Amino acid sequence: MNVFRLAGDVSHLVAIIILLLKIWRSRSCAGISGKSQLLFALVFTTRYLDLFTVYISAYNTIMKVVFLALSYATVYLIYMRFRNTYDSENDSFRVEFLLVPVIGLSFLEHYAFTPMEVLWTFSIFLEAVAIMPQLFMITKTGEAESITTHYLFFLGLYRALYIANWVWRYHTEGFFDQIAVVSGVVQTIFYCDFFYLYVTKVVQGRSKMSLP
Amino acid sequence: CPIGTTKDEL
C-alpha cells in the first residue's frame, strides 16, 4: 500500500458516494446512465469473486464489500426506486458493442485459463470501457449537471492515481501487472477529453457543463 | 502480476 494507491481508492469511493447521494437527495437519476452503473456492478461482481477464495487484508475485504454494496445500491435506485426519473431515451448506448469485444478479449488474453482468472480479466477490460454509456449520454444530451461532472472527475482521478501507484510499485517492488496497467492507461485516456472540459467549464463556476 | 499471486489491488 502506498499513498497513490490509498488516494486512488479514496477518490473511487468518493466518486461512488457522490453519485449515490446525488440520486438520493434529488430523488432523481436524470442524466445518469443506468447502463454504466449496471456495467460497474458487473465489474465488481466478476472481480471480487476472490472474496470467497483468498483473504488479503481487512482493508481489502471491507473495501470490496463496500464497493459491491454501493454499486448495487446505485443500480437499485436507478432501476427500481427512482426508475420514473430514469432517462432511458438518452441512455441508448449499445452495451453489446462493449460486452462482446470484452468477453472475446478476456478469452484471448489472460494470465491463466481458469474461470476466476478469465472473469478477473473480463472485469479489468470491462472497467476500462464501462463509463462509455455515461459519456455517450452526456454527448447526446449536450450537457451534464455539475454534480455528475464531479462524479466523473473523481472517477478519472482514481484512474490517474492508480497509474502513479503502478509507477511507484514498479520502481519499489518490481511489480508489473500487464493486463491491469495497459487497460488502466486506456481507461484513463477516455477521461482526458472530459478533464479538459471539466477544468475549462465547471471549475470556472458554471453550474452545468455544456458541450461546445 | 505473475500467475498465482494474489490480486491485492481493488
Specify Rg of chain A, calculated over alpha carbons: 17 Å
Shape of chain B: elongated
Q: Kindly report the greatest chain-chain contact and the residue count on each side.
A: A-B, 21 and 8 residues
The class by helix and strand makeup of chain B works out as: little secondary structure
Number of strands of chain A: 2
**What is the CA-CA span between the terminal residues of chain A?**
41 Å
| C-alpha end-to-end distance of chain B | 14 Å
Q: How many helix segments of chain B?
A: 0
Oligomer: heterodimer
Strand content of chain B: under 5%
Shape of chain A: globular
Mean pLDDT of chain A: 94
Question: Could you please describe the fold and organization of this structure?
Answer:
The complex is a heterodimer of chains A (212) and B (10). Chain A is built from eight helices and two strands, in the order H-H-H-H-H-H-E-H-H-E. Chain A has 212 residues and is an all-alpha fold. In chain A, strands 1-2 form a two-stranded antiparallel sheet. The model of chain A has no long low-confidence stretch (mean pLDDT 94). Chain B is largely without helices or strands and 10 residues long. Chain B contains no helices and no strands. Chain B is elongated, with a radius of gyration of 6 Å. The termini of chain B are far apart. The model of chain B has no long low-confidence stretch (mean pLDDT 67).
